[in-house]
Structure formats: structure tokens, C-alpha cells
Amino acid sequence: MDSDERIIGIKDVAKAANVALATVDRVIHNRAGVSKKTKDKVLKVIEKMGYQPNIMASNLSKSKKIVLGVLLPNISEGSGYWEFPMKGIVKAQKELSQYRIKIKTFTFKQDNNKEIRKKVLELINSDIQGLVLTSKFADEIEILLEDCKEKKRPYVFIDSNVRKIDSLCSIQQPLFESGELAAQLFNYCFNKGEILILHLKDTMDTEGIIGLKEKGMNAYLKEKNNSIVTKSLVITDFNENAINRMLTQTLEENPMIKGVFIPNSKVAYIAKYFEKRAGEKIYLIGYDFFNEDIEYLEKEIIDFLICQRPEEQGYQAVYKLFEHVVLKKEVEKEIIMPLDIITKKNYKYY
Amino acid sequence: MDSDERIIGIKDVAKAANVALATVDRVIHNRAGVSKKTKDKVLKVIEKMGYQPNIMASNLSKSKKIVLGVLLPNISEGSGYWEFPMKGIVKAQKELSQYRIKIKTFTFKQDNNKEIRKKVLELINSDIQGLVLTSKFADEIEILLEDCKEKKRPYVFIDSNVRKIDSLCSIQQPLFESGELAAQLFNYCFNKGEILILHLKDTMDTEGIIGLKEKGMNAYLKEKNNSIVTKSLVITDFNENAINRMLTQTLEENPMIKGVFIPNSKVAYIAKYFEKRAGEKIYLIGYDFFNEDIEYLEKEIIDFLICQRPEEQGYQAVYKLFEHVVLKKEVEKEIIMPLDIITKKNYKYY
DNA sequence: CTGAAAGCGCTTACAG
DNA sequence: CTGAAAGCGCTTACAG
Asked: Which protein residue has its CA closest to C1' of D7?
């Protein structure tokens, strides 16, 4: 049962090809300074013997560290979301520290363009060999991406890639489909009435994202061809009183509203309003799971949250860079995250 | 910004403690043959210098392979589920192959006690240093677990640990809570009526599992104090005609049934019946996601599936054994999987 | 273009 | 109980 095949190493290849260790190494890493003839000979032997490099040995003998960069918003009010990808990044870092991988983090305040540009400049002048970032702030990072392309520095997007910018890999949730999913869930709760889609504008370029979710929602409703329609409301003023006023007015004017869809991570703001509101149950569906949502999930004021495993996105982003830079593996261009559904009864295990 | 702290190794410790490399090695691995005095001295230096072992180097110089065993049902009709943990196990194996980890798989037909016992015997007489298995088949594996305890072989349970058997780690979904979740979902679909709980008996000891799910469901309904009640139906004959007959009769006699809860992975069997059935919509909630469910999800005959990331369970099981055996890390006694909700609109990304 | 040799940080016989 | 030395499978100057 024990097939104790001897592991064949660079030494075996060298002997079989009748060359020195260093030559085999050069061929394996495609380094210059090997004649075509020798290279072919070695390649053939590698192929025939089924040589597999030993990463542990390789890393052990390597001297230089590999540094990866991370450019993300810092964790502050209004951008608490970024805590989760960061956790995943830190986890990956710990796991990979044995491989002499280091991570340099560059954070900035979301609406501070000057700070973003400063960090971009720091990154351009740094010695990183790979980069994790989000495709939001597209204008500010454009120059950084150009620089990366020139220097052949790989970069990975997390959280979104709405403008379809080229990258080593982009990791995101399917947006359109998440809108469909939300519609399906609403449809389980009621099959006649209106869904109010709230556009909570903040400074980020998220209209593209919200737009896709909205399209998905309408697509599902159309497909089911039933009596649910959507209605949009744009909120620009985040002041609590302003929100209350707008919602009260809208709900009074539209008594058929049975559900509210908040296509970003600001559900708790809105749930607060519904907690105090009397009248018939209105179903709430939002995105992403925060501590402040728990209270409203427990009271079933927030009914469903659609989540995208942000921690895993951060982890995967670093891991894919590692695979590319260290292991020289092929990396898939796109990783699509599952659409997780969170309710009162399963958030504890998420 | 670059804190280029020199990594301190066994050599540095040896020099600082004024002993030989081998002695430091002995202390690190708690091997015999070191005087208390020397040991304390070395330990103190390790502590002070903050020495961290380099696993890559450690593994490279180790000669012997580590073999882990896996004892699970084979993949056949009626037990297709085990394909998923197996996938995770294979994934972990690939990732860990660099660490000289080998996995020996022992599979058996679920209802073949003789075969289980045979595999158990093989395992007892094997040279494995860790074991992945499920706590189902508790009677058959009892002797194996005793043997493991005696030999101090660690073992990890996946999929369930209803009888609360001791192990290095057990990985499972929260059963009671999954019943609550199912009840919550039904409650979104209707708020008056009956839920039929189907007990599809097969040869495995799964009554404990089903019982817990049922209790969770009733707990939620009671908590909500509304007008949904449950009703159980036991099916022992899996013949299609028999199922049809029993269901038709039950539904006729109980016109208030609005939902059917199938607390195991056999939903597709039941969905087949509902596909052909005329009459008012009856909601279906089941467990685990298989290819044969897709058709019924698409038609929204199956409404929700509650899933437990079986692939990740297999992966984690192997990984935890690896952490324990190779890295000598502390491993958590229990890993609770999230309760994933799958519908027509998100199964593609699961 | 090619090779011999030292070294990465550990483990493992072997000698004392 | 303790230590000196070889070796794990690679990479990296250095010499030719």
C-alpha cells in the first residue's frame, strides 16, 4: 500500500542530464546564460523524470524577502467594512510569514483624495512585488496601475471591479445576481406590492455597483412576472432627521411599499427608523454584516443581509499574489464569491 | 519603514546559551537526555530571544513522512454527500504534500458493517499518525477510537458529533440552530399553517441528528408564538410509488400543510413528487446541495437548502491534524460551520 | 555559457 | 548528558 517512490530532486536531474546543479537551476527559473542545446536537454530530462521543485528548500535557500503592498481605506466611521478584508490579509500574512513574505499596508481616509494620492506615490516608489487594492477610487489609482503595468508588478482587486480594469486577479461578489437574490427573498415574504430601493449616496463611486444590483432585482421581478414593482429613492443627506423625514413621506405617499432594499452596507441607519415606526411590517434587505446589525437582526427588523465573505477576499488576494510571485503558479483571472444569506438565525456562525 | 530584524535561529540560541545545536534541538522538542539545568538555561534564552522555529527548515531536514488516515463512506448511490468532504481532503493533501504529508483513504459502503469492521482493523494495524472520520457508525468505530486513545493517535470528526465523543477536534454544523433557521425561512413564506417534517429513514444512525433539527424548528415556532405547527411523517420505504402514496394521503388529510421540511440530504426524492403535484404551492426546505437539486431549485420547487460547507470540513479536518502533528500547534476542540442558505439565485456561486 | 562550493535553519545518527 | 558533523534540496555568488 505504501508506494515509497523516491522523490527526485535537482541533483538527480543534473546527474541524468550530465550538467551541474546550477545549470538545472538556471533552466528551471528560465534564467539567461544557458545554451539552447543544454536547456533543451535539461528540459527533456525534467519532463521525463517528472521533477517537482521543493518549495521548502527553495525558500530556505533564498535570501531576499518578498514584500507585498496593500492599499485600502482605513477603518473609521463610515468605512468599517474594511476591517474584514484586513483581517483576512493579516491571517494570510501569518500563514505565509514562513515563506519570508512581508506585507506593507497603506491606508487612507475614504474621502481624502490628497491622502490617497500620497499613498499612491509612496507605493510607486516602494519596493513591493505585488499589490492588493480595490477598484473603487478608480481615478486616483489609475496612475498607480499604469506604473504597476510598466514594472510588471501584479495587482489583485478585492470587493469590486466594476469598470473591468485588467489585473492579475479580481475577487468580488456577483452584483447583478445579488439583486436577483434579494428580489427572490422579498418575493418569499410577499407577492404583491412595492420595493423601495434606497440610494444612499456617499462620496465613493458606487453608483455602478448599486445600478447593477437594481438591475438584477428588476430582472428577477420581471422574470416572475408578478405584481411587485420597484421604486427608487435617493438620499444624499445622512442626517438622522433628514432620513426620517424622507422615509416617512415616501412611505405615506406609497402605502404599497412592503420591502426596502438597501444596496450597500448602511442598513443599520435605516433599520433604526423602522424600529420606531408603527404600522404593517416592512421587510428589510441589505448588504454586509456588521456588529451594529445584530440588534436589528435579532428583532427581525433587518430580515436578510447578503454577504460576500470580505475576510476571505482579503485572504485570497494575498494568497493569489503569493502563488503568482513565489510559486510561479497560474492564477485564475476572476474569483467570484458566494452570495451568503444572513438572518437572525445563522449570523452567529458566520 | 523596513524593520529588517534579523531572524534568530537555533544557532543563535545555541551560542547565547553556550551549548551545542543538538542540545537546543532536544530542548525545543522536549526530547529526553538533557539535564534539568541545561534545559532551563536554554528555555530561558529561547524565551528572551523570542526564538521561532523555521518550519521549512525543520521539514526539509526531517526524513520520515507523516501519514494520515481517512475513514469515510465511499461515494455511491445514497451516499453522494461524501464526495464533498473528500474533495476538501484532496485539496488539503495537495497543499500539504510539500510537508511530506501523505493521506491513506479507507472507504466502505455505508450499510456494510462487515466492510467497516475490516477497514477499522486495517487502520488499527496501520502506521497512521492521525485520523479523519465521522462520528456516525458510532458502534463500529468504538474500538478504533479506543485504540487511537491508547496509541495517542489524534482523530478529528467531521459532519457530526451527536454523541459528543471526545476527539482532537470536531467539525460540524449547529443542528438545533439549523432547525430554527428553517423555521424562520418557512415563516417568511407563510405565517399560518402546518409544516410537515419528513423522517426518511435509512440505515444510518441519524435519528439524533433529525431530532435536534426538529427541536430547533419547534423552538423557533414557539418563540414566535404564531399559528404554524409541525407534524411528522416517517418514511421507511424509499420506493417512488410508496413515497408518492404516503405523501398524497398525508397532504389530502392535512390541507393546512404549507411547507415540507426534509432534515437530511434527500430533498430531490421529495421534490420529484412535488414537481408533478397540482394545487397550491408548498414550500420545500432541505439540507445539502447536490447536482440533482439544481433542477428543482431552478423551478423553485425546492425553495431553500441549508448547507454546511462539507468540502471545507474535509479540508479543515486534515489541516487541523497537520497543525497538531507537524506544527505542534494548539487546535480548537470544536469548529462550528456556518449555516449557508442556498436558493435558485445563489447556488451557482456556492 | 558552465560548474564547484558555501550556505539557508534545521534534524539525525554517531561518538564521547 | 552533550557535541561535532553530515545532510535535507535548493540558491547564490564566484571562478573560469
From this structure: B61
